[in-house]
Amino acid sequence: MASTPMDIDEPAPPSTATPSLNITRTLGSNLPSTSRVADVISSFRPTKLFQRDNLKEGQPPPYIVSIDFDDKGEFCMTSESDETIQIYNVREGRYDKSLLSKKYGVKLAKFTHASTGIIYASTKQNDAIRYLATQDNSFIRYFEGHEGAVTSIALHPGSDDFISCSLDNTVCLWNLSTKQCTAKLFLHTPHLTAWDPSGNVFAVASPAAGSVLLYDYRKINKAPFGVFDVLKARGPADADAAFRGWTVLEFSNDGKHLLLGSRYNGHFLIDAFDGSLKAYLRKPGGGTRRLAVGESDGGTAESSGDCCFTPDGRYVLSGSKKDVLVWDTMATPSGNKVLEPVHVLEDKREAAVIAYNPCYNMLATADQELMFWLPDPNA
User: Fold this and answer.
1) Considering just the CA atoms, what is the radius of gyration of the chain in Å?
2) Could you read off the pLDDT of 174-229 as tens digits, one per residue?
3) Which of 17, 56, 285, 318 is the most exposed place for a label (fewest CB within 10 A)?
4) CA-CA distance, 86 to 109, in Å (whole number)?
5) What's the confidence (pLDDT) of residue 298?
6) Contact (Cβ atoms closer than 8 angstroms) between residue 168 and residue 188
7) Under 8 Å CB-to-CB from 184, ≥6 apart: which residues?
8) How do residues 54-110 score in pLDDT, each as one tens digit?
9) Each residue's pLDDT tens digit, 220-262
């Protein structure tokens, strides 16, 4: 297990809390953000655990539904099943503030390109997306147009446009400056969406159709220019995995690969140009207990991010019932396209949600508690 001691966040009000772990020192000196991911990927250790201290006596911790970092990598945000948003200061390694959304509920919280603004999906009252200012917890705008629960939100990499998918079988394109959607697509189960790194292409994943569709952002009302057949590209995966259980859709930052996450026994690494299967990323212990996007059993929380690319696009990280799994996309898969993890980052807690910081070699995982991970300089 880790030689770096793990720091547990002691309950304290944000205004008086003194961080016991100086992440600024670690990020800014010993392991600068320019370190190659390949040099540190095997040495990540659970470093700081954040536990909620503002719960009623006997109340279990809520489930963390999503994790997001701001563009500069200085803040980490979670949306949680108790209708709150929690924000953490990454560089100082401390809890920052809590934002309440008791009236409307909250999930899929995303920073805008300005870290003082966030957008998130409602879970109560209606299916609007809400634009919130974090300084005073005031709403700037409501984006109304969906008539079913929102399942995915993706912010354009270079502008204030964003895309949302919904159980009402629509995909909407929005701009932060106006409450009306600028375009709408009608598709069957468009549960997930993602932008390619150029911002010129976006993808929509439809599990019921077993397909990932590619659209030209400049010709959004035209038919997709590419349709990837996941059933054909599933490799050794069970046929069921080609039509259900999808958790994540993400382009690598080099634009070469699409990651289609699955709550089953592996994730799909797809060629972003021709839709062929590059590798089936096998999870030796299976997936987490969370449901996939669009699934519901009345109790279990969804997984809105159980796997992700590293910023260099080379590695894929995934949560599991315990530990974090790492695959090297440059490794050669077996004859049946199966790729085994090259590293297992040990932690006995379930990692149902995971996100890699866009600017620093640092990652966060969560189930009912949030964990910050850093490379161990002594590893």
Assistant:
1) 20
2) 999 999 999 999 999 999 999 999 999 999 999 999 999 999 999 988 999 999 99
3) 56
4) 10
5) 64
6) no
7) 145, 170, 171, 172, 173
8) 677 778 889 999 999 999 999 999 999 999 999 999 999 999 999 989 899 999 999
9) 889 999 999 999 999 999 999 999 999 999 999 999 999 999 9
pTM of the model: 0.90
Specify the amino acid at residue 30.
N
SS3 271: strand
Cβ–Cβ contacts within 10 Å for residue 325, how many?
24
Q: What is the DSSP letter of 291?
A: B
Could you give the CA distance from residue 377 to residue 35 in angstroms, rounded to a whole number? 12
pLDDT confidence of residue 285: 85
Closest CA to 162 of 126, 113, 208, 116: 113
Q: What is the pLDDT of residue 75?
A: 97
Number of other residues whose CB lies within 10 A of the CB of residue 136:
7
- Residue 2 is assigned to a structural domain of this protein: no
Look up residue 324 and give its two tokens.
């974090």
How many domains in the chain? 1
Cα–Cα distance list, 294 to 36, 65, 154, 231, 248 (Å):
36, 13, 16, 19, 12
Rounded Cα distance between 175 and 162, Å, is 6
Q: Residue 45 falls within a domain, yes or no?
A: yes
CATH of the domain at 333: 2.130.10.10
Q: Which two tokens stand for residue 329?
A: 């996309």
Domain that holds residue 88: 7-375
Give the Cα separation of 273 and 271 in Å (integer): 6
Task: Answer whether 87's CB lies under 8 Å from 75's CB.
Answer: yes
Task: Give the Cβ contact number of residue 59 at 10 Å.
Answer: 10
**Phi and psi at residue 239, to the nearest 5°:** -60, -30
1 in a domain, yes or no? no
| Alpha-carbon distance values, 367 to 125, 145, 250, 295 (Å) | 26, 31, 21, 18
Rounded to an integer, what distance in angstroms lies between the CA atom of residue 126 and that of residue 120? 13
Poorest-confidence range of 28-42, 197-211, 284-298, 349-363?
A: 28-42
Secondary structure of 76-121 in HEC code, one letter for each residue:
EEEEECCCEEEEEECCCCEEEEEEECCCCCCEEEEECCCCCEEEEE
Burial class of residue 1 (count of CB atoms within 10 Å of its CB; 0-12, 13-18, 19+): exposed
